């Protein structure tokens, strides 16, 4: 009988604390802004402002001796969506344009281009690429080689000749056949948004209560620390899931990112990650009782690792082995892998399940540390 009374009293206290948190959320618009306005702002900023696609690249074309072949070769650049060609009279003028940042590459067609082509010899062209951005330089080189190969095939067909190539490579692109960087960026950005939502909601709100003195009043109540932690987790978990649904809706309907896996798998994995992020925020709040310090620690400890070490922008396999080992304690690493798989590839369980296990371990660690360090004391 006494056990039932204790259970009933615990549930009543927990319901009261959850109701109190929802009332505080309604009275304080900052939590709603973090959960709903921040995803909209970040998705619009990154979705439209950041792109890894290289299109309309300004390139200088220098034709030393014009002919029919050089004209069609130059036209191949004009017909490509990847290039925005401009004709220059000499290589020196084109080099000056590259120095000024007007063009990113120079294609020089030598004067004996036609003679070599008619002899089925290597037609002399020179490619000069601005290598300040090494990644863009590699992309431009690949695009120029693609235009060159396509033009050679057309030129051979017009002459009724077979193009002699040692390897006939047929390329197929899986999972992102359109090669849209937005399909890659937006799912990863959802992970960054959920990291910020989870960490900031609990870290800032708890520290605000310490600053306002309401936490002291809460600690003198019969509530246990487990009830306090649950009472903080449940309302902001619901709020964070609302932010997730908003972000996923924008990804699907505004940015046209395909969802090839199950929506329920996506929601379940996101719920698990949100619990992990909320646990990180609660752990931060047990250390920092100032909103400024809590916000700063949350940004440094959650946002920066999620942005740099999760695979969102930079390939983890290309990082040094020491850094790769550090990424295993970054929760966003596992969530980014799940999101990109569910969105672009489908329910690939060999990828989803190990990453889910990683999130379970981290959630247990963060919540366990929070519970252990939380005590009903005012010091």
What can be said about this structure in brief?
With 379 residues, this protein is an alpha/beta fold. Helices cover 68% and strands 6% of the residues. The longest helix is centred in the middle third of the chain and has 32 residues, at 181-212.
Helix count equals: 14
Instruction: Summarize the main sheet.
Output: 4 strands, mixed
For the record, give the distance between the C-alpha atoms at the N and C termini, rounded to a whole number.
36 Å
The average pLDDT is: 82
Q: C-alpha Rg, in Å?
A: 29 Å
Strand content: 5-15%
Give the helix/strand class: alpha/beta
Order of helices and strands: HHEHEHEHEHHHHHHHHH
The percent of residues in helical segments reads 55-70%
Number of strands: 4
Strand order of the largest sheet: 2-1-3-4
Number of self-contained structural domains: 2
Which regions have little confidence, pLDDT < 50, spanning 5+ residues? 1-5
Form type: elongated
Describe this entry's structure for a reader.
The chain has 379 residues and is α/β, with parallel strands linked by helices. It folds into two domains: 2-50 and 180-373, no CATH class; 57-158, abc type-2 transporter like domain (abc type-2 transporter like fold, 3-Layer(aba) Sandwich). It has helices at residues 2-27, 29-49, 68-78, 91-99, 113-118, 134-158, 181-212, 214-219, 225-254, 263-287, 291-309, 321-326, 331-345, 349-373, and strands spanning 57-63, 83-88, 105-109, 125-129. Strands 2-1-3-4 form a four-stranded mixed sheet, with helices on both faces. β1 (57-63), α3 (68-78) and β2 (83-88) form a beta-alpha-beta unit. The protein is elongated, with a radius of gyration of 29 Å. The two termini are 36 Å apart.
